[in-house]
Design a protein that fits this description.
With about 100 residues, the protein is mostly helical. Helices cover about 85% and strands about 0% of the residues. The protein contains 4 helices and no strands. It has helices at about 1-30, 35-55, 60-75, 80-100. α2 packs across α4. The chain starts with a helix and ends with a helix. The model has no long low-confidence stretch (mean pLDDT about 85).
Length: about 100
């Protein structure tokens, strides 16, 4: 029963993140423009991959904080910390999806 409940909650969280992520990306697209969003997103993906390779021993929250700070630095603070967090989370989600064995 515990594993069934866990799987149900995991599915629910995945659904909420997927739907919420779509709305957040649309919001950011209007906020900072499509071209800038694409550039910032590519930077975010590169940062996530670089941190994962160079600092695998860090905890997830520490990697996230490092990635957010690096993204803000590289974009010269042209985006807010919240926007940077959303871009990093989206990059992590996409990279995990690419590396998932179920593809």
């Amino acid at each position: 029963m515990d594993s069934t409940l866990f799987n149900l909650l995991l599915s629910l969280v995945t659904l909420v993140i997927t739907i919420g992520g779509g709305y957040l990306v649309n919001f950011l697209r209007h906020k900072i423009g499509n071209e800038k969003l694409s550039n910032f997103y590519q930077i975010a993906k590169q940062i996530v991959m670089a941190i994962e390779q160079s600092n695998p021993q860090l905890a997830g929250i520490d990697k996230k904080e490092l990635a957010i700070n690096k993204l803000l630095e590289l974009t010269q603070h042209k985006i807010t910390e919240n926007q940077a967090e959303v871009l990093i989370e989206a990059a992590v989600y996409d990279i995990k999806k690419l590396l998932s064995p179920s593809n």
